[in-house]
Amino acid sequence: FNRREVYATTGSRILVRFWGGWDFEASDAASRLPAATGYSKGVPMGGDLRKAERGEEPTFLVAALKDPYSGNLDRIQIVKGWLDKKGRTHEKVFNVVWSDAESRELDRKGRLPPVGNTVDEENATWTNTIGDPELITVWKDPDFDRKQPAFYYARVIEIPTPRWTAYDAKRFDISMDRDVPMSTQERAYTSPIWYTP
Prior knowledge:
Order of helices and strands: EEHEEEEEEEEHEEE
Shape: elongated
Radius of gyration: 19 Å
Distance between the termini: 24 Å
Helix content: under 10%
Largest sheet: 7 strands, mixed
């Protein structure tokens, strides 16, 4: 807690690790021990990247592992926030790694098609026939401005699983109104990594 190296989930026990630095390479995502690489080359979530030298761009190593009792992983996103010259805040979401990559591609605006949905609402169950049990990648900010304060955090999203309303409908043998959502995508959010010019 003192280092702010924490993350939160919406319920499931997803594991996520997130580091930022100046020297991460794509090959670092092939390591079976990402923490060793993460700590040796950068700062963990909650950390602060100091002034960038001319030509440097921050790189990020992010890794996530599914909850063994919940859904597979759909995607990892990195959310960038920054202050413009007038002090206004902005945010942009980047899809950086995703499951079923052979059948899903980003469109021109960086949007990703849905992973699908295997939820059986009537029986309040699902199958892990879509998604991946783990995701890991190295990502570089394509819009980095070394004079601009910024923060970055990772968001991990599971495939759809039954929402509590589906479990209640099954348990009490009732029908929910059509407007009631019956599935959800659990998430994990890391502490941000701050860039301070």
